[in-house]
Amino acid sequence: MPGMPLLPDHAQAQFFRQLQLQLRDRWQAIEHSEEGDCDILVIPSLSLDQQELHKIKGVYHYEERLLFSLIRLRHPRTRLIYVTSQPIHPSVIEYYLQLLPGIPFSHARERLVLLCTYDASPKPLTQKILERPRLLARLQGAIRRDRAYMTCFNSTNLERELSVKLGVPLLAVDPDLLYWGTKSGSREIFKEAEIPFPDGSDLVWSSEDLAAAAADLWERQSHLKRIVVKLNEGFSGGGNALLDLRPLENMAPGSASTRERTQAIADRLPKLSFQCETDWENYSRQIPELGAIVEAFVEGNEKRSPSVQGRITPHAEVEILSTHDQILGGPDGQVFLGCSFPADDAYRLQLQEYGMRVGEVLARKGALERYGLDFIAVHQPENVQQPWDLQAIEINLRKGGTTHPFMTLKLLTYGVYDEKTGLFFSQQGKPKYYIATDNLYSKQYHGLLPRDLMDIIAQHHLHFNSTTETGTVFHLIGCLSEFGKLGVTSIGNSPEEAQEIYDRVIDALDKETQCGDEG
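and the corresponding structure tokens:
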């Protein structure tokens, strides 16, 4: 089937929106049909700033993050086409297909099409696909366009172009709306949704304006000890840096002029505490490209980082999907490492309310599919009515680190999320809990092949048990050998059981790799 003709930008955008309207008619088959008679094209491209991506170890293996989508092959008429930059090890594919309850492996495998660009260059996968006309033709031949949709990690102009060329609707936000997922755009949404968020600045495009914005913020909030500097399109906390004001005490409001304070901050910027491997020379070079903001750092003796995830359906309905307490790391606790589900019951329903407000604002602006909303929660025990103060930090208009663990749980158990309690219940009515991470790392794990991991899973009974609906599901398996890094989602019937299962995974991996070193 010939591809779509090349369209000017405005015509492409219009045709893209017409394609997305088809999702309304297909939504029943996509989400609510047991047979699932549809074709799903999975494009797990990380179409993000490549300089920022380079800071993540093993990032090119993150295309495996969406392999939870293979669990959708549990529906006997669903077909799935998964494209990657490099081939995925057969053991990894077998691992996911063996998770499917009640579906013969061979039946599921026949409905799975794996395609690859064989290109490890540091470019987004979607760009690689667009550069290969023959691969595009294979995709067109593999898809039933009248019942297909495309899903991705994040949506950009590249994904829109691919959607248009294939004539397949993209179940993701229109790239024209991506501003609302930036740091500055998030703050505008928070204001419109009337939810609390830290004081901060508008978007700036130079180091000089950044220093001036920080000085203005300090004047408004004279009690500040630290200020967060954020690249406007940073992700997972990697674009954040911390400006410590305590060494500049003599420049505090009331002690120095605005000009002196601004210059002192400008001199201090090269000493920012960065949350990933970079320096001021490289960081400052990105400010004119991406833009940046400054924001008050939320202090507190006891702090947490909860989040709420929702989605906007093709019918513009807003649904809350989950809440999590995030596990953060890095030099100043700004980098996403993992999460636990659900969020603490002390604030999970408040998270849902704020998440619904934000979703309704996004829906009015035309957004579609998933969004995540990150918070800082500070314990204030003196406030009996509201013991936790929630401050919204940012919106993510893409699949994130909390997407794949929750979708893995949902697809494996056929369960439902209950907004009244903020809990997830299996079909048997049992509440389910999990701990998940993308960053289970040890230098001892280097050299473990996918087949080695399968041996360890079998020997230590770590596999997900479809009868008890507990156990661990592994991901990012391709990272293991080269980087000693692995992703896991450990599911239990209580928070304590989920933690115990997670700890068993670490103990087993440590034991097996220590034995390997001794031998």
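(Above: one complete record from the training split.) The first helix runs from residue 9 to 32.
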